[in-house]
Design a protein that fits this description.
Strand 5 (79-82) and strand 6 (85-88) form a beta hairpin. Strands 1, 3, 11, 12, 14, 15, 17, 18 and 22 form a 9-stranded antiparallel beta sheet that branches. Strands 2, 5, 6, 13, 19, 20, 21 and 24 form an 8-stranded antiparallel beta sheet that branches. By secondary structure, the protein is mostly beta strands. The protein is globular, with a radius of gyration of 22 Å. The chain has helices at residues 2-17, 93-97, 99-104, 278-282, 340-346, 348-351; strands spanning 26-28, 41-45, 56-57, 70-72, 79-82, 85-88, 91-92, 106-108, 127-129, 139-141, 143-145, 151-153, 155-162, 169-177, 190-196, 203-204, 215-221, 235-239, 249-256, 259-264, 267-272, 307-315, 325-326, 363-371. Bound molecules: 2-acetamido-2-deoxy-beta-D-glucopyranose (2 copies). This is GH16 domain-containing protein. Residues 17-373 form the GH16 domain.
Amino acid sequence: MKTELFLISLLVINVKSDFCLPSVTTVSGSRAGKVFCADQLIFEDNFDTLDLSIWQHEHTLTGGGNYEFQYYCNNRSNSYVEDGVLHIKPTLLADEKGEAFLSSATMQIYGGTPTDQCTNPNHNGCSRTGTPDNIINPIKSARIRTFESFAFKYGKVEVRAKIPAGDWLWPAIWLMPKYYQYSRWPASGEIDIMESRGNRDLINKATGENIGSKLVGSTLHFGPNSNFNRYRLAHFEASLSEGFNAEFHNYQLSWTPDGITYSIDDEVIGAVQPTHGGFWQYGDLNKTNLENPWRGGTKMAPFDQEFFLIINLAVGGMSYFPDDVINPGGKPWSNKAHSGATDFWKGREQWLPTWKEDGSYHFLVDYVKIWSV
Ligand SMILES: *[C@@H]1O[C@H](CO)[C@@H](O)[C@H](O)[C@H]1NC(C)=O
Ligand SMILES: *[C@@H]1O[C@H](CO)[C@@H](O)[C@H](O)[C@H]1NC(C)=O
């Protein structure tokens, strides 16, 4: 009897799969299953636990290429799961090591096993000596990624998240290429699903626009080299008067062999659909007289290769927070100064009170879901 019931349910499943549309999605990694059909859920994490066999932590002082002020580490004070929600919470390194440590110590984070090794040595990312003018990264935070567990090419992504409110916080949900098929950044592309600035009242002086937590951005980075990154042609923004920090929202990416569409809560905020000339033509790159690194790819190149997912909370840095802004209490550092981290830390009376005790400065992620297309 049991067997019969089992057979019947198998039949039902088979009937359903007759409607299976073939998928163009490919997947790889230790958590990659078989992709049979389009519209199949191929990755899901509801953060009932923080599963480190899915999410590998970055462990580095490198500063993300922008001299950002955070030290990314694997520590349950900075990344943890509570009531089915991932929290990334920035903390002060001085609370752990003491104030003098920042300007006088040498911090080495090489690590001795594959799990605690330093993950990025660029810009003294594995060893730093603090000086009064250039202190050690004063904020501890987290960046997690699916580099080993899950990469995919083409799909639909939905991340339900609540962005943090707090000055100079920079949350991001993004994808990076697994193999750099078309050479180093940005030639192999970068897909930023969501990034924002935590300041509640950050105003662009020139436009009067709130560029803080009332604004989120989505961007494709692509170009033959970093001098010709054409991201401005694929940058989209959405604004919300109550702020994106007030509620959870669904940040969505649809990525197919025809184009890339960004949405929030099912509302499209921007799309790129290259013609047969691909991103070379879309970026008007022929006039650079450089060699087209994507010439062997499809019209979606460099976005026709597998990418993996990254979620992080960065702080400050020398590029993302413009100097020409109005902010309550001002901006404690200049992007042109070499003493950015020191000036930021010395100015903490300005920003630390905006990281409120109610925890609204935590970056929260409810779930990540990815479907095949
Ligand atoms: C984790 O972070 C907390 C808070 O900063 C600190 O007290 C603790 O020592 C850290 N643990 C390790 C193993 O570094
Ligand atoms: C691109 O530029 C090269 C010379 O730099 C030229 O020969 C070629 O026709 C151009 N292609 C297009 C599509 O404009």
